[in-house]
Amino acid sequence: MRERFGAQRRVLSFSEFLAMAEADPARHTRDAARYVLGAIEHFGSYEHRRPWGTERRYRIFDLAFAGDGLPANGRRRRSDHLQGHERVQEAVVQAVSAFAREGRSNRLVLLHGPNGSAKSTLVACLMRGVEVYSETDDGATYRFSWVFPSGSDGKGIGFSSERRPASTDESYAHLPEERIQVKISPALRDHPLLLLPREERRRFLNACYERAGLSTSPPDLLWDGELSHQNQQIFEALLRAYRGDLARVLAHVQVEREYFSRRYRRGLVTIGPEMAVDAHERQITADQSLGRLPASLSALTLFEAVGDLVDGRGGILEFSDLLKRPLDAWRYLLLAIETGDVALRTSQLTIDSVLLATSNDLHLQAFKQHPEFLSFQGRLTFVRMPYLLDVEAERGIYESQIVPQLGVAVAPHTIYVAALWAVLTRLHRPRRENYRDPALGHLAASLSPYEKVRLLTYGDIPERLSENEAKLLSANVRAILEEHDDGPSVEGSVGASPREIRALLLGSAARASRGVLTPIEVLDALEEFCRTADYDFLKRNPDGGYYAHEDFVLVVREAWLDRVEDELRDASGLFDVGRPSELFSRYIIHASHDVKGERVWNPVTGKDEPPDAELLRRVEEAITDEGGPDFRKDLISRIASYAIDHPGQEVDYGEVFPDLLRRLSASYFREHRAQLAEIGRAIVAVVEAREKDLEPDLASRARGALRALEERHGYPTHAAVVALQELLSRRLLDYT
């Protein structure tokens, strides 16, 4: 422990800190904005592929802090990390970067969106990252205290010229506790370099930055800043007592490493919507320990600043639900952002924090109607944070934050069902007139809610589209995503909140039979919710299939059954999943020879024969409405283009023609649904102890399929039966 304490350099003299700052000025001359940016950069970022392109995601919002030499145990659960919202992350990081470049935080970043859109979660991730960063070598940050030793007889401290520091570096910083008479640790954590007079400080900073080859300028805090009122009083009193000997004044400085903590309000503070100025002063001269100071100090009337703005200095200040406050209660804050100071009773408090605030959209709209809004607008950076439109990211929220609280087993796809319905309620109907390209506008307007959510989440193109339409839509997914960004109602600003879904899932879990929550209970709960709940988004009139929340329950049920059918097909072992790919490869061979007017070698007959017209017709009926010579020419041209772009590589039809292969697979499996229905009914019979009604071979195959559903797809036996009964009754009833 002692070795670790020393290695962390927790206690330094001023000269030791000065040497550290000189050796690494980029690390030790940061204000709050540069420190927070340093924390973000420390954890790094990575590219995240989305249907509309690549987006950058910052690891600080993933809360993946088990590495970097830090213990994994004791960390906050990953359930608190931010799902999705890459564009919001980028906006916040760019705002902090701008503050760092400009030399100070001169704006308030206002995160606004509907209730439950993870605004506070984003801030909490940022704060947690700063906490962890402050424990690393790169994140070391320091404050200072004033120490006054006892005399040689253990009494009084005095300022006689013969009394000198006892340590080798001419400092009292490393004195043992029993030798220290008084220690003053100001609540306002000034940067140690502010102890240098301004001219000397500027020369020091210029020399350090030039020697280190830094292209940036020192932050305003250190270039123009001054000590807080309390520290300035002590500094000047000591300077007078020592007749201007700065070295002897600095001998009383003990520089201490500081660790940020949200729990203990050290540099990370969340302020609620109380109606009060968030800082004030109190007199500390009455402290009995200060009575032992020499006359030159004890005669001072010392005040220290206290409050939220003080506690959050050097780090992050979050103003939660800021716009719930009357404007007069935070007008001072907007003025402070402009000037960089807050006026207290006897002094000015310098603001050195990254200022973040949250608000719901309703309060923001009301604020925009205020006559003074325009004058305040320039001091705010607005970052919109709507609900997620990505089903998988939404599912991630429920899986990590809600499922652990349910207290029951959760069947496969149960959470997917809830997430899909929630995202469907948030979508806006695409409008043809919102697109410059009429063809793209026509395609966008034709998208059903389910097609749109599949497009935005997985990049899936509707199978009903022609090849040219599919290409156009695939190339413009971002335009679909951003269609309503500049409109009066942003997509994702209304709809089901994760909070409503949480309550719905908890209620469904309480009614789950046999200790397993299945999609059936959730679907029933969604139907009841649509009929009885009193939410504004449920009162919207359906428009072209959008905002039809009760109909969405049916859509979600079908999406669930799609997955169940795929899993049953896989578990049954009856179907050769490679068969459609093999069939498509044969089709391409015959189509190529047909386009070239060539014959095809038949290994069975040992002869060259015309391309198989029946094969061409059968495959084209399954994959397109536009079969024939022109369609085949287009396919061969696309293969040729792929070969040019990938020289020496075998053509991957799954990459070149994913939609066509998907359609062919669907057609192949539809033709064999009777077999699927048979194995599904057999599995139910096995579970219900009706195995004697089955042929031995079928019973054996049913047991194997059930085992595959349980082991490969994670189904509890009861959940498998529920899913199969739903599939059989709704899709496979007519197949015998």
Offer a concise description of the structure.
This protein has 736 residues and is α/β, with parallel strands linked by helices. Helices cover 48% and strands 12% of the residues.
Sum up the structure in keywords.
5-stranded parallel β-sheet, alpha/beta, about 725 residues, 4-stranded antiparallel β-sheet
Structure description:
The structure is a single chain. With 736 residues, the protein is of the alpha/beta class. Among the domains are: 395-560, no CATH class; 579-658. The chain is built from 33 helices and 19 strands. The strands form seven sheets. Strands 8-11-14-4-15 form a five-stranded parallel β-sheet. Helix 23 packs across helix 24, helix 26 (579-596) packs across helix 28 (629-645) and helix 26 (579-596) packs across helix 30 (658-670). The longest helix is centred in the last third of the chain and has 24 residues, at 549-572. It is elongated.
Layout of strands and helices, then pairs:
Blueprint: H1 2-7, E1 11-13, H2 14-23, H3 25-28, H4 32-43, E2 45-50, E3 53-58, H5 86-102, E4 108-113, H6 119-133, E5 141-149, E6 180-184, H7 198-212, H8 220-223, H9 229-241, H10 246-250, E7 253-258, E8 268-271, E9 280-283, H11 295-298, E10 303-306, H12 308-311, E11 316-319, H13 327-339, E12 341-343, E13 348-350, E14 354-360, H14 361-368, H15 373-377, E15 380-384, H16 391-401, H17 403-406, E16 409-410, H18 414-424, H19 438-446, H20 449-458, H21 467-474, H22 477-481, H23 498-510, E17 516-517, H24 519-532, H25 549-572, H26 579-596, E18 600-602, E19 607-609, H27 613-623, H28 629-645, H29 653-656, H30 658-670, H31 673-687, H32 696-713, H33 717-730
Parallel strand pairs: 4-14, 4-15, 8-11, 11-14, 16-17
Antiparallel strand pairs: 1-7, 2-3, 5-6, 5-7, 9-10, 12-13, 18-19
Helix pairs in contact: 4-5, 4-6, 16-18, 18-24, 18-25, 23-24, 24-25, 25-32, 25-33, 26-27, 26-28, 26-30, 31-32, 31-33
